[in-house]
Write a structure and sequence with these properties.
The protein is α/β, with parallel strands linked by helices. It has helices at 37-43, 55-65, 82-85, 91-105, 118-122, 127-138, 158-167, 190-203, 236-244, 257-271, 276-295, 298-301, 315-326, 340-347, 362-372, 381-389, 399-402, 411-429, and strands at residues 11-12, 20-25, 47-53, 75-79, 111-116, 143-148, 181-185, 208-211, 226-230, 248-249, 305-308, 329-335, 355-360, 376-379, 394-396. It has 3 domains: 11-29 and 294-429, Rossmann fold (3-Layer(aba) Sandwich), CATH 3.40.50.1980; 33-154, Rossmann fold, CATH 3.40.50; 181-283, Nitrogenase molybdenum iron protein domain (Rossmann fold). The two termini are 42 Å apart.
Length: 430
């Protein structure tokens, strides 16, 4: 990848205390957006993700998933070979054949995603047209959608954003005169989803739906009475698509830690007119449990410096949690893309001296990291091992995506994810 330009001058961010943001364009480390399938295929239980890509895509997915040879996951790869790339074979005919065989073998599939990859995008294979054609053929038993999981100029969590954004146009319309409904947007583990659902219902918010739903036929309706809140900070396109269908965004810090979860739930409660008395009665005990669990790691993490390389787009909410609830000092918080609208509440709780950076010039950022000498660095897999060799303690950012970290009951686990590498380093030095 060629460097487009070096670090650009800092520009003031509108709102968010007018905090300056360092914009960077240069060499950067990215992970493939196809990896979003790893958590999405577990979430939507009757969906299948068919990647149209190369053998490299297939090997990546098999390695990332750690799927045993006897397992039959809800994803696969339609492998493009030399005949396809050379134009000798009609790729649309071949794709039709693969889909027909797949659906005959797996009749439980109700929702099929055709997922674009770097190879399919380079040769400009029109998967949107293929999805429309195949939907007509296999309707009504199977709905077929498409989205891009390509790693070209994207980061890996955008795979989920692209997937959910592709779902929004097909969501049923909300009935006229329907009551206000809360939609929680973003793939959460089932246990976290159940915890949030229980808390909302105890408050008196009974009409709660989740996107994505666990079953294809149970996707939520959307309309002017839909109030939605994001559970993940990387869903820019999904949020825009929901707004286009009339839904209203509830803005809040993201539900990480005791304080973040409380603020996230309170924003929903306020939107639905839940009294402070009811809200505190429902949340006080789980909040106290979360605070005790986080406090177990406070002594080990207080005052420690943390440096974030841009990777998952979780960086800003994580930095807010570490600073606000564990007393850590974020020296630089880098993120691939900075959506100030979605992240404003978390940004405002970061210390003024924290440098916010968007995009990456990896060589320059490595120089700043070495100069800062942070106690722990959060980064992608490609940087972690080289930094460890230099004696810098690291935490893999992708682990924070695969692990359930949202909500009260997971707050202590989230704190431990950062305490563990530092404890390991201490034991090794002894």
């Amino acid at each position: 990848m060629n460097i487009i330009d070096k670090t650009l001058p800092s520009a003031p961010a509108s709102g968010c205390n007018d905090r300056p943001v360092l914009h960077q364009r240069g060499q950067h480390e990215v992970f493939c957006g196809l990896t979003g399938i790893m958590w999405l295929h577990r979430k939507i239980q009757d969906a299948f993700f068919l990647i149209v890509g190369s053998r490299t895509c297939a090997h990546l997915m098999q390695s990332a998933a750690g799927v045993m040879i006897f397992a039959e996951p809800r994803f696969g790869t339609a492998i493009m070979d030399e005949r396809d790339l050379a134009g000798i074979a009609d790729m649309h005919d071949e794709l039709d054949s693969v889909v027909e065989k797949l659906l005959a073998r797996r009749p439980e599939i109700k929702l099929l995603f055709l997922v674009g990859s770097c190879p399919s995008e380079v040769i400009k294979l029109d998967l949107g047209r293929a999805a429309e054609r195949l939907s007509v053929t296999h309707s009504p038993s199977v709905r077929i959608l498409n989205y891009s999981g390509s790693g070209i100029e994207t980061t890996f969590t955008q795979g989920e954003d692209a997937c959910l954004a592709s779902l929004v146009p097909s969501l049923p319309a909300e009935p006229e005169n329907a009551p206000d409904e809360l939609m929680v947007v973003g793939a959460l583990s089932d246990v976290v989803e159940d915890q949030f659902d229980r808390l909302f219902k105890e408050m008196g918010i009974d009409t709660v739906r989740f996107l994505p739903a666990r079953l294809a036929d149970d996707m939520p309706a959307v309309g002017n009475n839909t109030k939605f809140i994001l559970a993940q900070p990387f869903l820019t396109d999904t949020a825009r698509a929901l707004k286009d269908r009339g839904a209203e965004l509830i803005q809040a810090p993201f539900p990480l830690g005791a304080e973040g979860t409380t603020a996230w739930l309170k924003a929903c409660a306020d939107q639905f007119g839940i009294s402070d008395e009811i809200f505190h009665a429902v949340t006080e005990k789980p909040k106290q449990r979360a605070e005790r669990a986080v406090a177990m790691h406070f002594e080990n993490l207080q005052g420690k410096t943390v440096f974030f390389f841009p990777d998952s787009q979780l960086e800003i909410p994580l930095a807010r949690f570490l600073h606000q609830e564990l007393g850590m000092k974020p020296s630089e918080v880098g993120t691939p893309y900075l959506n100030k609208t979605l992240l404003s509440a978390d940004i405002e709780m970061l210390p003024e001296e924290t440098l916010l950076s968007e995009g990456q010039d990896v060589d320059l950022q490595l120089e700043r990291c070495r100069e800062e000498k942070p106690d722990i660095v959060v980064c992608g897999l490609g940087l972690a091992n080289p930094l460890e060799v230099e004696g810098i303690t690291t935490k893999w950012s992708i682990e924070l995506v695969f692990t359930p970290i949202q909500g009260y009951e997971q707050a202590g686990d989230l704190a431990e994810l950062f305490a563990r590498p530092l404890n390991r380093r201490t034991r090794l030095e002894v």
